[in-house]
Each structure stands twice: as structure tokens, then as C-alpha cells.
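>> Question from a student workshop board

For tomorrow's exercise we were told to take the sequence and the ligand below, predict the bound structure, and bring the output to class. My setup keeps failing. Could a helper post the expected result so I can at least see what it should look like? The ligand is methionine sulfoxide.
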Amino acid sequence: MAFKRPHRFYYFDSQVYNFRGMAEDLTLVRGTKEDQYLSLIPQLEGLLDGEVDLIANLANITAALKEQFHWLWIGFYLVKDNQLVLGPFQGPVACTRIQKGKGVCGTSWTKKQTLIVPDVESFPGHIACSSLSRSEIVVPVIQHGDVVAVLDADSEHLNHFDDTDQYFLEKIVSLIRF
Ligand code: SME
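>> Workshop helper replied:
Here is what the output should look like for this input. Compare the format with yours to find the bug.
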């Protein structure tokens, strides 16, 4: 007589199957900053592949960066009605609107350039969304020549961001399709 599996195992198998089908676990690595970005970027490409919803994609990018790097704050501000408006982010609550040319974010927008700020207290007009932030990098997201958003990362450590962050964060924002 053939072995008959108890019904509960069929139930268990189908739960495992569903879980595997839906899983979006990140593989997190230790190592140099470069190693961490090199591991993360193909995974971000996979997460974005086939998904056209902008908010879903921005949300996953911020979550993945937060999980890998544990920065104080990481998030997007989106250009809306000639202002930057808070978008998907990970970290403490933040200012909701930033005017063009104001703060590090608004300056990155105006200059269409990545800004690395080793000490936020030495950046004239820096907007302190969190008193814990000590250094910052802001990367503009440029589509068809216009800034459509900025990616902002804050650290509670001085001098935390460098050219490596700039290089890889610019690569990451280039994956986004608005
Ligand atoms: N510090 C930024 C404001 C945004 S928060 O840091 C999240 C700025 O000066 O534009």
C-alpha cells in the first residue's frame, strides 16, 4: 500500500512554496563599503526588475540601503510643484517640504550635483531634520536633464560619506525610472 502523507504536510509544503515564491530577502554582506555596494546593486536591480510603480521601487531602495548600511536616515525627496516633498524613507520622521536652493537637498537640486557634507554644521543653511545627523550625502535623480528627486543619506558620524558612496549611490539612482 502506498504511503499516504498526513494532510498537515501538504499544508506545510504549500506554505513553504508560497513563502519561497514571495520572498524578497536581501543577502547582506560585511566587508568594505565597496564590497557592500557590489553585493547590493544586483539585488536592487532584481527588486526593481518588472516593477513599474515608482513609490514601491523607491521604498525598496531605501529599505535595502538601510538594512545594509544602517545609516541614521535614508530617503527620497520628490520634486512636486517646484518644491522637494518627502517620499519613501527609512529612519526618524523628517521635514516634509524643502524649497529649491535651500539646505543640502535644495542645493543639490539647484546645482544638479551630488553634495558630500562631512560636517553638517559647516554647511551654511543646512536643514536639521534630526539633531543626531552629523554628516550627509545628497544625490540628485536626473531624468531627461531635469532633477526629479534627490536621494539623501544622513549619518550620526562625522565625515561618513565619500567618493565611493557618491559613485555607487549615483549608480543606484540611475536604475530608477520615473
Ligand atoms: N539635511 C537636509 C534636510 C533633509 S533631512 O536631513 C532628512 C538638508 O539640509 O537639505
